[in-house]
């Protein structure tokens, strides 16, 4: 089940799964703060801290983590609330406004800024001790605003290339060094060699039938996190400028998008946008069925692929561009509710959530890469037992990354530019024109 920060076929951020909803609850007064990893507290009134998230796969790991926390903190009980992604962001502003929001809850980068700016979140920099386990720096940077960190890193993902070993080895392709653009482009020739019609003809050959393709080479599509955001970054462009305005329609952005669109419509080495625009996960399913040879995506698809395919597959670094290799990278943080009635206890739970011990179940149960660096080996070990080396994702996250969408109004902007950008991938509007129109629509919506 997908936990990507963005759906592959949409623009607006998502890490969602359908979950069983629970009602928000709040606890009573407060008690003196102490270390979350210390010994059990003296017997007395037990305070309840609520923790809200949207991922049913992660919930059991948190239940296990909080059970260990409660063994060491007898005066605190942590209740996990599951709210479906489809309801999560509609319910959040209502609960914040009414004072019924959970004490601690998950957010992503597209949604935290508004709540930080409005004073709804606990300032992690000011209120948590700086003496904590090391956190994934790219996620710390993403949630730092106005020189303060507003959430405790929980899980993160980056980008790599899933590839069909049999098909790639048959063609003798070096997937560890693929690059798009320029005279030394190796991606397009590889994708052409791997794209085969139903008669066995390869893309780019005289008899190739683009209307009857059996296997595609690469997943060029409107996938913000795994494809076009790292793509434009690797060509020297960016989704947004430093002020938060959309900036992807500059010449370098146009060049990057043109390459992706040409893979679909000119070279026919990527699945049609008529399918990927409406179902971003169709390319994952094609890879599972052996109908896609190379699939650039994140660790959020590891379980689906591992559990559902008979294809022999492995991982390689994401495709590089003219400016080098840039990974899509994102993560989720746990934020503290500034209006909590149990401030001291909430801080103790946040301290636990930031510790490697507290996050270890997320790795051990194969949920995702934990935000605490010392807990990440548990996730690596989980996949090593299945014969999968996921270290390529760590290398990607620690290298150059394409900055994820940010700012209090970025969702409004993304919703405005999304339809026009999908038209670009459909090929119904020229790339340069479509990107300019999309960028203008997005910025107008953010600046309204």
From TrEMBL:
Instruction: Quote the subcellular location field of this record.
Output: Cell envelope
Family matches, as InterPro entries: Bact_solute-bd_prot1 (IPR050490), Pept_his_AS (IPR025660), SBP (IPR006059)
Any single Pfam family the record assigns to this protein: SBP_bac_1
The leader peptide range reads: 1-20
Q: What is its main location?
A: other
Tell whether RNA-binding is among the UniProt keywords.
Answer: no
Cite the entry's keywords alphabetically.
Signal, Transport
A GO CC term? Answer: cell envelope
Q: Which family does it belong to?
A: Belongs to the bacterial solute-binding protein 1 family.
Name of the protein in question: Maltodextrin-binding protein mdxE
Q: Which organism is it from?
A: Trueperella bialowiezensis
Organism lineage: Bacteria, Bacillati, Actinomycetota, Actinomycetes, Actinomycetales
Its gene? mdxE
């Amino acid at each position: 089940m997908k936990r990507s920060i963005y759906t592959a076929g949409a623009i607006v951020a998502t890490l969602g799964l359908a979950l069983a909803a629970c009602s928000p609850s709040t606890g009573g007064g407060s008690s003196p703060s102490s270390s979350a990893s210390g010994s059990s507290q003296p017997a007395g009134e037990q305070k309840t801290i609520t923790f809200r998230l949207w991922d049913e796969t992660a919930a059991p790991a948190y239940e296990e983590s909080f059970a260990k926390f409660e063994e060491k903190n007898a005066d605190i009980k942590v209740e996990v609330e599951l709210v479906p992604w489809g309801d999560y962001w509609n319910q959040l502003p209502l609960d914040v406004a009414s004072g019924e929001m959970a004490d601690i809850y998950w957010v992503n980068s597209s949604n935290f800024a508004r709540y930080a700016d409005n004073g709804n979140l606990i300032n992690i920099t000011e209120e948590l001790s700086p003496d904590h386990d090391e956190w994934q720096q790219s996620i710390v940077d993403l949630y730092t605003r106005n020189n303060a960190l507003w959430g405790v890193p929980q899980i993160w993902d980056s980008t790599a290339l899933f590839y069909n070993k049999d098909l790639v080895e048959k063609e003798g392709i070096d997937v560890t060094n693929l690059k798009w653009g320029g005279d030394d482009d190796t991606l397009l020739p590889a994708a052409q060699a791997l794209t085969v019609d139903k008669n066995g003809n390869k893309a780019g050959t005289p008899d190739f039938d683009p209307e009857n393709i059996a296997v595609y080479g690469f997943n060029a599509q409107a996938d913000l996190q795994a494809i076009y955001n790292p793509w434009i970054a690797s060509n020297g462009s960016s989704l947004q400028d430093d002020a938060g305005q959309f900036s992807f329609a500059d010449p370098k952005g146009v060049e990057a998008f043109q390459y992706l669109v040409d893979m679909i419509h000119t070279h026919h080495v990527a699945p049609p946008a008529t399918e990927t625009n409406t179902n971003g996960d169709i390319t994952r399913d094609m890879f599972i069925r052996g109908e896609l040879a190379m699939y650039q995506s994140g660790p959020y698809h590891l379980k689906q692929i591992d559990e559902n395919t008979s294809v022999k597959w492995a991982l390689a670094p994401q495709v590089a561009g003219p400016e080098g290799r840039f990974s899509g990278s994102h993560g989720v943080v746990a934020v503290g509710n500034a209006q909590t009635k149990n401030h001291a206890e909430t801080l103790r739970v946040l301290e636990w959530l930031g510790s490697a011990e507290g996050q270890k179940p997320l790795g051990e149960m194969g949920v995702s890469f934990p935000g605490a660096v010392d807990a990440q080996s548990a996730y690596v070990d989980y996949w090593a037992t299945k014969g999968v080396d996921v270290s390529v994702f760590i290398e990607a996250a620690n290298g150059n990354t394409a900055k994820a969408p940010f700012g209090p109004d970025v969702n409004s902007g993304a919703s405005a530019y999304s339809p026009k950008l999908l038209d670009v991938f459909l090929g119904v509007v020229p790339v340069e024109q479509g990107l300019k129109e999309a960028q203008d629509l997005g910025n107008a919506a953010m600046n309204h």
